[in-house]
Amino acid sequence: MKTCKRASAFFRSLCRFSLLHRSMSWSPRQIRCWKGPESSDSLSDCPRVLITGGLGQLGIGLAQMLRQQYGRENVILSDIKKPPAEVLDMGPFVYADVLDYKNLRELVVNNGITWLVHYSAMLSAVGETNVQLSRAINITGLHNVLDLALDNSMRLFVPSTIGAFGPSSPRDPAPDLCIQRPRTIYGVSKVHAELMGEYLHHKYGLDFRCLRYPGVISAYTHPGGGTTDYAVQIFHDALSTGHHECYLHPKTRLPMMHISDCHRATVEFMQAPECQLYLRTYNIAAISFTPEEVVEEIRKHLPHLRVTYKPDPIRQNIADSWPMRFDDSNARRDWGWEPAFGLPELVTDMLSHHRNRRASVDLGVS
Ligand SMILES: NC(=O)c1ccc[n+]([C@@H]2O[C@H](COP(=O)([O-])OP(=O)(O)OC[C@H]3O[C@@H](n4cnc5c(N)ncnc54)[C@H](O)[C@@H]3O)[C@@H](O)[C@H]2O)c1
Questions:
Q1: Which helix (H) or strand (E) covers residue 291, if one does?
Q2: pTM above 0.85, yes or no
């Protein structure tokens, strides 16, 4: 712990030194680093968190987990969509477009934000249908939050993905450091995010943290247009119509993770002391399965589930270029990452959530 504090004090003095050398002229958008008394270290006991793109598949659950630890008012969800009433009841929500730098800055300053979780994005499959918009949200939006995080000494979390790898990457397993030549605008923008964040960390001391999430499986929210969405949709279909048409080949293996593992990994990683982080971008893994394998597991509970396969060329192409498994040994070693859900636990949990939800609104189960 002492080493950690000493390293962090040394680091802060380096940052101040570099600030002096760059402070001859600056504008609010110019990159700078000021780790003053309110640095993220000293505030790590009770951060003030802003989540961008928070109304998608992942944001609401993460906000709930953070609120349990840091208090309802200390975690602000934001998005460009109108939130449902139950989300408003859970805690603070504000409108924030990541393309509007001035508005974002106002939010950060007025609310004393110390941790920024940057979730807004256009995911892999939808990104390919509108490359320009995807580039704007995923790259211009990222630049805005990077500038803001530096200007305001925030700890910045940006998720990356299995989509940050490409056909020339090692696929089974993909390690943290290897060739990354993705072939989607989504993947390209995520590699850009990883590299920009790490560059600003090494050059100016930005406390940038990035996890490469596998496909995330959640019972509470609908998927946002990714290539792993079938693994969420299949549970809805299994209990409603009893039939799922899968857009991937039955043997397409991809890394996946239960949403509560994903949220816990994010919170634990954000809480990890800086001195434990030998990398700034880590793979995290939990399970890796094919459509065929998840169907077999679901059939243990619902033997009549019928699945047909109609591979969609866009999504199949994307999936075939992604890792089949993630090597997450660095995350396990450096900050103690360990998943809780294997495939049987994930299937049992998803089915029980969907059953309860359907029962609560008087819908039958096929
Ligand atoms: N869900 C997964 O399986 C998965 C896997 C790997 C990585 N990730 C990453 O995690 C993050 C969250 O993923 P998700 O599944 O919740 O995504 P999602 O697509 O469900 O949600 C993204 C949100 O961003 C919002 N958004 C779009 N444009 C915006 C703008 N201009 N300003 C502000 N918000 C805007 C959307 O309204 C949406 O609510 C993303 O960065 C994604 O790349 C997700």
A1: helix 291-299
A2: yes
Taking 90 as the threshold, does the pLDDT of residue 282 lie above it? Answer: yes
Select from 120, 133, 165, 257 the residue to mutate for testing ligand 1; criterion: most ligand atoms less than 8 Å from CB.
120
Check pocket membership of 215 for ligand 1, CB cut-off 6 A. Answer: yes
Contact of 137 with 100, CB cutoff 8 Å:
no
Lowest mean pLDDT among 7-11, 43-47, 323-327, 358-362: 7-11
pLDDT band at 299 (very low <50, low <70, confident <90, very high): very high
Catalytic residue among 101, 119, 186, 230: 186
Query: What is the four-CA torsion angle of 142, 145, 151, 153, rounded to 10 degrees?
Result: -110
Q: Closest ligand 1 atom, CA of 98?
A: 32
Distance 78 CA to ligand 1 centre (A): 12
pLDDT in tens, 300-316: 999 999 999 999 998 99
Query: For ligand 1, atom 18, which residue shows the shortest CA distance?
Result: 56
Neighbours of 293 (CB within 10 A): 15
Q: Where are the domains of the chain?
A: 49-363
Q: What would the pLDDT profile of 17-75 be if each residue is shown by its tens digit? A: 333 333 333 333 443 333 333 344 444 579 999 999 999 999 999 999 999 999 999 99
Pocket test residue of 80, 209, 263 for ligand 1, highest count of atoms within 8 A of CB:
80
233 vs 204: CA distance, rounded Å = 43
230 carries an active-site annotation: no
Q: Are 109 and 152 in contact (CB under 8 A)?
A: yes
Return the CATH number of the domain spanning residue range 49-363: 3.40.50.720
- Paired tokens of 245: 């048409």
98 lines ligand 1 (CB under 6 A): yes
Q: Whose CA is nearest to atom 23 of ligand 1?
A: 53
Q: Is residue 16 scored above 90 in pLDDT? A: no
d(CA 168, CA 147): 32
121 CB within 6 A, ligand 1: yes
